[in-house]
Amino acid sequence: MGEVTAAALVVCYANLILPAHPAYVIDFKDCHDYKYFFIRFSHGTQMHGVTGQEPLHCISHTLGFWLSSLMEKHWVSLLIPLDVVKYVGIDLRQKSTIKFSAPSAYPVITFGPFNAPADVMTSLSHAIGTVSMPPKWSVGYHQCRYSYDSSEKVLKVVRTFREKGIPCDVVWMDIDYMDGFRCFTFDSIRFPDPKSLVDDLHSIGCKAVWMLDPGIKKEKGFFVFDSGSKNDVWVQKADGSPFVGEVWPGDCVFPDFTSEKARAWWASLVKDFISNGVDGIWNDMNEPAVSKTVTKTMPESNIHRGDADIGGVQNHSYYHNVYGMLMTRSTYKGMEMANAAKRPFVLTRAGFIGSQRYAATWTGDNLSTWEHLHMSLPMILQLGLSGQPLSGPDIGGFGGNATPKLFGRWMGLGALFPFSRGHTETGSIDHEPWSFGEECEEVCRLALLRRYRLLPHIYTLFYHSHTKGIPVAAPVFFADIYSLRGDCLLGYIIDDIPRLQFVNRYYVNFSILLDPQDPELRKVETSFLLGPLLVCASTLPNKGAHECAHKLPKGIWLPFDFADSHPDLPLLYLQGGAILPVGLPIKHVGEASLEDDLSLIIALNENGTYLHIF
């Protein structure tokens, strides 16, 4: 599902705290210039080791690992410098061992104590930065597929949204808009005038996002290849010649984004590309993905001529984790150069901690299954806890064909995710909201109208995330009440290996504790928070949200809806003491005005008053 998955796990493990007297054996090993850190435990051992709630599941067996790896009771923040480029590997294939590997050690610093999980995220944001404030249109609904293969098809899809009264703000162009999959080009027959197409889209309130991959076709006479070769920007093999790997256009070379020269070259291309009316850019395949290889990426022996301040000349294994992030950084810069008055919007498949400063993330090529619908929520929550609040799955599933029930249920949930986009693969059936019959179409219409009524609130949450590092979509335990005890513990480095506090070199001991009133909230997998708004969904094919038992945090949580109750839509609850602003039922953000009235939904607390407005 893309390298961002691994990046998210790295940060989740940074937040993984072991109890004072665990049955875990900690071991370190140096071998062939690599540092190895092992956690060995008995199969079925409770990872959090405090309340015995959730077994550790290897990711090869169940995705429950994504959620059960969240912090249970002890709260810390691991801080690393901006744009850290060191490689980190995590091996979860063994049932009783987790193995971390890296070519050198990371410093570990913990600050505390903290009063709440949100404070941990704010502390983390001081080290890794916060999400860039997204353009408002990007908080609306996005429609994509691989591929809308002509200008006429693109316009037909968007006009159908308008005719049917279903909200939508963005349409996406996958690789088929290109001339022979050559980046920065347009097919002269199917997309003869991209600027005219974008003008037509803008006239009906729709933006356009276009894909750019890192693989550049190795072809003399192709202006991007010729320019890159002249500027000497390609990743090299060990012998100094450009590395050539196969991607969509055939043989390709790859920009060395670790070099400022290459990033500036790419940003200049992006700046010119924007003149075609491009509103946003989609960086895909940027792990980088390489076909017909065992690893699906370039060899670790490839050479990057990186800037001195991030490591200098190193092989690919050193820079692999941040290749995608550095690509989005230069894409973002190119969009800024094109128009400093507009906020850039970039979506990336690959990323690392800190990527949120430049790009949104999606969870990769999922499947049209109920299991993957269920998986999407904990993955988004994990990304939020990793500092990336702007994420979402391919609604309806990318691979395979959704059913009407699955698509409607997925839209009901996905319409409330921070990033909301429908997408599907080539060769699949149509996956637009009206493609599954009238009942599913109505569910999708209701779901997206909900999102657009909540846009004032969701947009405000992005501002809080931008300024404080707080996730837009947060786990339900963020609403728990905590009691604090313990002291601050600073991590330090011994023998060039990061360690916290060790007893007999084998056990980790922590003294920062935040005791939750309701540890059961850690087990919730089908609900999440949008500020004081609690969203409770069902990912079961035979039960709607109203038929499921939902665990609510302590306190007052009042149910409400927009007169749109439906079994395939999530239940909504508002926390006592909160005031929720909602807007008009618009079809795209361009219909809204600063002069529009806002409605206020008020949930009084136990004293009959309110405390805060979100």
TrEMBL record:
InterPro entries per UniProt: GH (IPR017853), Glyco_hydro_31_AS (IPR030458), Glyco_hydro_31_TIM (IPR000322), Glyco_hydro_b (IPR013780)
Keyword field: Glycosidase, Hydrolase
Location of the Glycoside hydrolase family 31 TIM barrel domain: 132-461
Gene3D superfamilies: Glycosidases (3.20.20.80), Golgi alpha-mannosidase II (2.60.40.1180)
Superkingdom field: Eukaryota
Example of a GO MF term: hydrolase activity, hydrolyzing O-glycosyl compounds
CDD domains linked to this entry: GH31_glucosidase_II_MalA
Transmembrane stretches, start-end: none
A biological-process GO annotation: carbohydrate metabolic process
Pfam family, one: Glyco_hydro_31_2nd
Alphabetical list of PANTHER family matching this protein: ALPHA-GLUCOSIDASE, HETEROGLYCAN GLUCOSIDASE 1
Family: Belongs to the glycosyl hydrolase 31 family.
Listed name of the protein: Heteroglycan glucosidase 1
Organism encoding this protein: Zea mays
